[in-house]
Design goal:
With about 80 residues, this protein is an alpha+beta fold. The protein has a single domain, classed as Alpha-Beta Plaits. It has two helices and six strands. The chain has helices at about 20-25, 60-70, and strands at about 5-10, 30, 40, 45, 50-55, 75. The strands form two sheets. Strands 4-5-1-6 form a four-stranded antiparallel beta sheet, with helices on one face. A two-stranded antiparallel sheet has the order 2-3. A hairpin with a 6-residue loop joins strand 2 (about 30) and strand 3. The chain is globular, with a radius of gyration of 12 Å. It starts with a strand and ends with a strand. About 20% of the residues are buried. The protein binds iron/sulfur cluster.
């Protein structure tokens, strides 16, 4: 059995580049040097969102990141 995962989705177009997500969950979030927005590391484009499946041990960090996001554009889905 593989490691349990959860899903993160990011509505990147609405990101204002505040940097909070990259402070709370460094392994998933990195600030882009070109446009100043956050990149979801390993994420794939799906419509208006960038999505990634991440190991469950990163769940708490990313819940904090989602809570801290002033735009509320980070969504966490445990049911995958
Ligand atoms: S916390 Fe939200 S608005 Fe701030 S950089 Fe991350 S995704 Fe963008």
């Amino acid at each position: 059995m593989g490691t349990k995962k959860f899903k993160i989705s990011h509505k990147r177009n609405d990101c204002i580049g505040c940097g909070s997500c990259a402070i709370y969950a460094k392994r998933q979030w990195q600030m882009n040097k070109d446009d100043g927005k956050a990149d979801l590391i390993g994420g794939k484009k799906k419509g208006d969102f960038i999505v990634s499946e991440v190991d469950i041990d990163e769940l708490e960090n990313n819940k904090e990141a989602a809570k801290a996001c002033p735009m509320q554009i980070i969504k966490i889905d445990k049911n995958i």
